[in-house]
């Protein structure tokens, strides 16, 4: 799987548009708080009493490339 935030990938052609895809995860914020520090296109929300959890959600368009 190749993940990109650009509309195209150099040297590759889009063969098929598979539609919108989404994913989400709920993590313990204290254990994984730095994992998402470099991610730009994520929605997140701090959950739980004392802010002990983190919910991250990502969405995009899935395509088949050559």
How would you characterize the overall build of this protein?
With 66 residues, the chain is mostly beta strands. The chain has one domain. The protein is 6% helix and 50% strand. The protein is built from one helix and three strands, in the order βαββ. The chain has one helix at residues 29-32; strands spanning 14-28, 43-47, 53-65. A three-stranded antiparallel beta sheet has the order 1-3-2. The longest helix has 4 residues, at 29-32. The model has no long low-confidence stretch (mean pLDDT 74).
Summary keywords:
about 70 residues, mainly beta, three-stranded antiparallel β-sheet, 1 helix, 3 strands, about 50% strand
Q: For the report, how would you describe the main beta sheet?
A: 3 strands, antiparallel
Number of domains: 1
Query: Which runs of at least 5 residues are low in confidence (pLDDT < 50)?
Result: none
Kindly state the number of beta strands.
3
Oligomer: single chain
Helix/sheet category: mainly beta
Spatial sequence of strands, sheet with the most strands: 1-3-2
Q: How many angstroms does the end-to-end distance come to?
A: 12 Å
The percentage helix is under 10%
Shape field: elongated
């Amino acid at each position: 799987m190749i993940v990109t935030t650009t509309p195209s990938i150099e040297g590759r052609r889009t063969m098929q548009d598979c539609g919108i895809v989404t994913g989400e995860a709920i993590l313990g914020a204290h254990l994984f708080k730095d994992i998402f520090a470099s991610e730009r296109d994520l929605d997140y929300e701090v959950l739980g009493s004392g802010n002990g959890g983190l919910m991250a959600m990502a969405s995009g368009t899935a395509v088949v490339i050559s």
